[in-house]
Design goal:
Elements lengths: L1 H10 L3 E5 L27 H6 L1 H19 L5 H11 L3 E6 L5 H5 L4 E3 L2 E8 L5 E3 H11 L9 E2 L5 E2 L19 E5 L8 H13 L2 E5 L6 H12 L4 E4 L12 E3 L3 H9 L6
Parallel strand pairs: 1-2, 1-9, 2-3, 9-10, 10-11
Antiparallel strand pairs: 4-5, 4-8, 6-7
Helix pairs in contact: 4-9, 7-8
Length: about 270
């Protein structure tokens, strides 16, 4: 089957690639869904919950504070490196990732659209002030000296598994207007910025085909591009272990480790 995929790359030299959590699990970052596409854990918090409840924000930031260090120290794996190599070879015209970990960029990919944002950045929901995640970490530590005594295991997207008395945690406000700071990522119930959506559609029109890697495509923000590619008659191949929302739309699918398959593709000489 790998030979079929290698021939696919030869026949379609300009690819749009869509990636998801399955590309980062080998880097130690947990994913949300099992092989049937179902949630492994409770759903992430909604944007409306985060904005309207101080208790929800206290819980979020406490857990996120503990999860940030291992999350931020994660390094690219073979899947990220292979995709960077394929871009360097001129085979990928655009990479679209649903991940918020920045590992594609760390691996060397340049043409990346972070569809759901990046956890390294914060934005005030009132005045638009930008802050870094390091700023938030330092403020949380200064305002809550005991927070470093808490321990928890890493959960998806820099979260951590922890239950404690979150009401005692002090959360810093925007240093400019006193408003609510939020990670500059798209929460459930929040819309992906239109500019990103339009950028992906522009790349899709230029691409010969789509390659889907390590994602179940269960969220519409990514699935919509598969649907549009199908409407345009462009072939779509997937490398993903488990069920996806678009299984019936793929030209073909490999249910094998994404890093292994992408590494094999990246090592295939052009035109072979």
């Amino acid at each position: 089957m790998i030979d079929v995929l290698q021939q696919f790359l030869t026949d379609h030299p300009s690819l749009l690639v869509i990636t998801g959590a399955g590309c980062s699990t080998e880097s130690g970052i947990p994913d949300y869904r099992d092989q049937s596409g179902a949630w492994k854990r409770s759903k992430p918090i909604l944007y409306q919950e985060f904005m309207h409840s101080s208790r929800v924000r206290q819980r979020y930031w406490t857990r996120s504070y503990l999860g940030w260090l291992p999350f931020s120290q994660a390094t690219p794996n073979s899947a990220h490196r292979a995709l960077a190599s394929l871009e360097d070879q001129g085979r990928i015209i655009q990479l679209v990732t649903q991940n918020v970990d920045g590992l594609h960029q760390k691996a060397g990919s340049q043409r990346v659209i972070d569809l759901h944002g990046n956890l390294q950045n914060l934005v005030c929901q009132h005045c638009g002030e930008k802050e870094t995640r390091l700023w938030m970490q330092e403020k949380l530590s200064a305002l809550n000296p005991d927070i470093n005594e808490l321990t928890a295991s890493l959960a998806p997207d820099g979260d951590a598994d922890l239950e404690t008395d979150f009401s005692r945690i002090v959360i810093p406000d925007c240093p400019i207007c006193g408003g609510t700071l939020k990670p500059d990522v798209v929460f459930y119930g929040e819309q992906v910025p239109r500019s990103r959506i339009e950028a992906v559609y522009t790349a899709l029109h230029r691409a010969d085909a789509l390659l889907v890697a390590g994602t179940s495509l269960m969220v519409f923000s990514a699935f919509q591009f598969i649907r549009e590619a199908t409407r345009q008659g462009k072939p779509i191949v997937a490398v993903n272990q488990g069920k996806t929302r678009a299984d019936e739309l793929f030209t073909f699918k490999l249910e094998q480790p994404v890093g292994e398959i992408l590494t094999a593709l990246a090592s295939t000489p052009l035109g072979k």
